[in-house]
Amino acid sequence: MNIKLEPLAPGQTSGSIVCPKFLYAGIRETYNSMNVFVVEDSSLLRERLIRTLTGIEGVQVNGFADTADEAIEQIQKLHPDAIILDIRLRQGTGFQVLQSVKGRGKGPLVIVLTNFAYPQYRKKYLDAGADFFFDKSNEFEQVVGVLQAQIHRKGLNDTPPDA
User: Fold this and answer.
1) Cα distance between the two ends of the chain
2) Does domain 13-154 correspond to CATH entry 3.40.50.2300?
3) Parallel, antiparallel, or unpaired: how do β-strands 82-85 and 34-39 relate?
4) Widest CA span in the chain
């Protein structure tokens, strides 16, 4: 079994974080997981999203940001498997993040989750390489389904060979 010890940093706002379900153990397993990075400016929604995501078997939130620059920097450093991306951020836009991530080729799975799910935004983001585009108000749970399908498809829940 491959286990990685990670210290918790009080007040940490971005970068690598430990999922709450491993908080008390002080460890997190690094196999059978899909690393997800969250880009969301609303702290309440970001916390709800992280709680929801860490409740999915095989999903691990490895970082978050609330500005475009911070997101781009952390995503380049952490190389997540998937990104949950809001359109409007505290500074910059989700489109800047999307262009940075998908501009170099395939990149990670990008799921746009926004309150501004207008047809023109949907088209713009999907044309620029977003894999999914969901409305926060009525499609929030679709994110869970997409991630579960990706995990199943990639076989990330399989037992590691040395177990």
Assistant:
1) 6
2) yes
3) parallel
4) 49
| d(C-alpha 155, C-alpha 109), whole Å | 16
C-alpha 27/C-alpha 30 separation (Å) is 9
Chain segment 1-42, per-residue pLDDT in tens: 333 334 434 444 444 343 433 333 333 444 457 999 999 999
Measure Cα distances from 127 to 19, 33, 48, 93, 124 in Å: 32, 28, 28, 16, 5
pTM for the full predicted model: 0.77
Count of other CB atoms within 10 angstroms of residue 156: 16
> Rounded mean pLDDT of 64-82?
97
Asked whether the beta carbons of 38 and 84 are under 8 A apart, the reply is: yes
Q: By three-state DSSP, how is residue 135 classified?
A: strand
Nearest to 130 by CA among 71, 84, 80: 84
